[in-house]
TrEMBL record:
Organism name: Methanococcus voltae (strain ATCC BAA-1334 / A3)
Keywords per UniProt: Metal-binding, Nickel, Zinc
Protein name as annotated: Hydrogenase maturation factor HypA
Biological processes per GO annotation: protein maturation
Signal peptide: none
Protein family according to the UniProt entry: Belongs to the HypA/HybF family.
Superkingdom classification of source: Archaea
Amino acid sequence: MHELSYATSILNALMEAVENQKELGKNPLKVSEINLEVGELTLIQMEQLKFAFEVIAENTICEGMKFNVEYIKPHILCKDCGYEGDAMPKDEIGVYCPKCNSMHLKIKGGKEFNIKNAIIEFDDEE
Ligand SMILES: [Zn+2]
């Protein structure tokens, strides 16, 4: 289940961000939300990822965090007809050119997995 490895890397990144804030003298209470960019070609099942995250984030500052996901459409360059633009996944493993149906493509986008930012709540009362 590769969702678990994504969940683990998200948690690690967040815990590192929390540690950095602590080093700056701040007092993070909770990581409440995360904004992700996920390419449709990653085939990540977000429900599974969230479930895995809930399990590993239990009793951490990230417990109960909300996921906001922006999906990125596959972007291709067709090596047969030269079409460049968005494409739809044909099945679970591939995409095809919407003009000529070729699968001889250069994939230029759609495999992203980026943490855009996270919302950390702080204890402001010094
Ligand atoms: Zn084409």
